[in-house]
Amino acid sequence: MTGANPFAPTSLEGRSLASQGVAKAGFLVITLLLLIPALGIVGVLLVEGWPGMTLSFLLEKPRENGAAGGIATALVGTIWLTAVALVVALPVGVAAAIYLSEYARDNWLTRTINVAIVNLAGVPSIVHALFGVGAFVHFLQFGKSILAASCTLAVMTLPVVIVATRESLQAVPKAFREATWNLGATRWQTIWRIVLPNSGSGILTGLILVVCRAVGETAPIMFTGAVFFRQLFPNGVFDKTMALSLHLFNVSTQVTNVPRHVPFAVALTLILVVLSMNALAIWFRMRLRGRKKW
Amino acid sequence: MADSLSLKTRTTILNLPRHRAPAIEVQDLSLWYGTFQALHDVTLTIKSGIVTALIGPSGCGKSTLLRSCNRINERLGYVSTTGTVKVLGHDVYGPEASAIQVRRHVGMVFQRPNPLPLSIRDNVLFSHRLHAERKATRAEEEAMLEQALREVLLWDRVKDRLDRKATVLSLEEQQKLCIARLLPTKPSVLLMDEPCSALDPEATRAVENLIWDLRGHYSILIVTHNMAQARRASDECVFMLMGRVVEHSETEDMFVAPQKPETSEYIEGRFG
């Protein structure tokens, strides 16, 4: 065959390739911009806060409203808040997710519940805080306490916990459910023996990720259980406590004569606590997922 | 053809009891999915101790009929039925029948092998553990396990790895395991919904041979798309069309001398 080669590049194609190149480079630059805040935050905290990150800073109790001493009571308080919030959110979130995923039919009630969950996720944390004051501190008479603060955190995170749990449950193949029904199992026997054992890791990981993020929040705990300054470690869930997030706010803005490195060191500790919990959850998930096979 | 001969020659060896009560009696069964009627006044008697194949084009209602026999259809929630289905003389839709007990005694094997994500041992013992009035002793469980796996010709292949996950088995072994796990609750009727269609030819042959071995002890109702399979691995054949039973006869008669024009057209491959 003679004539022009139909497969040779045309000038039009050259232009589209050029604009494609520009687009690609532009998107790359914008994506790289995202690194600035991420690296900036970590960098500044490390440079400014590292000199203050000593063992005694972590292990000593604060003095002079936080201007001197360490952060031990705040660190322990944050751990308390996290643990209790996890314990509250787990049963409620999993029960609701099991109902929605395994039992609920598609009717107006289910649809209403789903809409409510989505809306609950959109409520600002300060509004959750006020709800917590009304519901847990006053109505249930928990007082201003770890329990009230953790319940508030749990309510705030429940929508995400439910959605994450429901996804884990629905990731269990339908064929297993059909198989057990055919052997005469009830829904609950199916859930208990097959669905939960195969989604437990996903549920737990999702829960830890969500709740630990919430623990970094200040608003939901400042009216419900966290205090400005306290030198005692909490003795139980009805005690008040200090917490890292609120302590950070205080040493940054409320207390005078705070050494320059202290707020940075508190922020660094807070980030490390949350990140290490997340890392733990992710490691946990990878380990369990590696073993799963169907 | 060689296959069909090797299977059929064994028919003569098997001494079929002629007097046993029918395995399944379907009387005037109509079934609706919502407003769509999938079965129209089906009346059918499945004999005990033989393999009966349900054949027909897609959407003719054969799977629906199969699923009505152990009430698994009800899971969908929008299914309504009229008429009766008697298994071993008892109405499965009767006021005294519980769907759970029906499913426990009348097991089903699916198109895709669906072993549970448990060990081979736990798969086989799963339904017994669900339903037993008292917990079986270790020795009883071992005996049950061995018997069920021997019946499906799997024992020698898996006896050294009973605690391994069932999902690591080959598809053929998985499908055999799915049959084995129905056996400890002593069903005498086995329902199979295209049990070989996800398997390769070798595995298909192995599972067909197994089904053929199980007849006599069990009454087997099998849905198949595969004409050759129906012909070589069933004693009787039921041809369905548009939710109705068109013809029911001994397999050899149906393939050699079908009574109805629709049957012969379908068998010859003119539709479906």
Can you describe this structure in just a few lines?
The complex is a heterodimer of chains A (294) and B (272). By secondary structure, chain A is mostly helical.
Provide mean pLDDT of chain A, rounded. 86
Distance between the termini of chain A: 55 Å
How many structural domains in the coordinates of chain B? 1
**What proportion of the residues of chain B form beta strands (DSSP E)?**
15-25%
Spatial strand arrangement across the major sheet of chain B:
6-7-8-3-9-10
Would you identify the regions of chain B where 5 or more consecutive residues have pLDDT less than 50? Answer: 1-19
N to C succession of SSEs of chain A: HHHEEHHHHHHHHH
Give the secondary structure arrangement, pairings included.
The complex is a heterodimer of chains A (about 290) and B (about 270).
Chain A: H1 11-33, H2 35-49, H3 55-59, E1 62-63, E2 68-69, H4 72-103, H5 108-121, H6 125-139, H7 146-170, H8 174-182, H9 187-215, H10 219-222, H11 244-253, H12 261-291
Antiparallel strand pairs in A: 1-2
Helix pairs in contact in A: 2-12, 4-7, 4-9, 5-7, 6-7, 7-9, 8-9, 9-12, 11-12
Chain B: H1 2-13, E1 24-33, E2 36-46, E3 51-55, H2 62-68, E4 79-87, E5 90-91, H3 99-105, E6 106-109, H4 120-131, H5 138-151, H6 155-158, H7 171-180, E7 189-193, H8 201-214, E8 219-223, H9 227-232, E9 236-241, E10 244-250, H10 251-256, H11 261-267
Helix pairs in contact in B: 7-8
